[in-house]
């Protein structure tokens, strides 16, 4: 890297971070999110990134209430309701009465939902493996740790702006 390419380390954000590094992180995370949304449609035309994420959560939790989904992803209940309705129409999720509280309905994956989720998950894993194929193992381990650390922030600071 030449001197002209070196970031100006004297420019810092209010938090004391080099501004250029923070800008690069923001730009690259935005590009990552756009790519993820775009690729979701190519993986399965009926499954948006949000739908895929909700199905994955339902599988991981072996079902949950729509209000739990909204709280977990910090989404408006009406947004989750629309997504869940679309997943029900596609017969990927179903509502079941909670055996412990008959007033509550729990969302569960149907067999079709499990099948599509497995297909899309495998396609995503293949895409990640291809994209990361040339990376040294130490870089993969470091990158994974950085992502875990970055995503853990939300849990450490509930109620704050998390963008």
Could you describe the 3D structure shown?
With 163 residues, this protein is mostly helical. The chain has a domain at 50-151: Arc Repressor Mutant, subunit A (Orthogonal Bundle), CATH 1.10.10.10. 62% of the residues lie in helices and 9% in strands. The protein has helices at residues 19-43, 49-61, 66-73, 77-89, 111-132, 137-156; strands at 93-98, 101-109. A two-stranded antiparallel sheet has the order 1-2. Strand 1 and strand 2 (101-109) form a beta hairpin. Helix 2 (49-61) crosses helix 5 and helix 3 crosses helix 4. The two termini are 31 Å apart. Residues 1-5 and 156-163 have low confidence and may be disordered.
Helical proportion, percent range: 55-70%
Task: Report low-confidence residues grouped into runs of 5 or more.
Answer: 1-5, 156-163
CATH class of the domain at 50-151: Mainly Alpha
Can you summarize the main beta sheet? 2 strands, antiparallel
Describe the strand arrangement of the main beta sheet, using strand numbers.
1-2
Between the first and last Cα atoms, what is the distance in angstroms?
31 Å
What name is given to the CATH topology of the domain at 50-151? Arc Repressor Mutant, subunit A
| N-to-C order of helices and strands | HHHHEEHH
Average pLDDT works out at 83
Beta content: 5-15%
CATH architecture of the domain at 50-151: Orthogonal Bundle
Q: What structural class should be given to the helix and strand makeup?
A: mainly alpha
Q: Count the DSSP helices.
A: 6
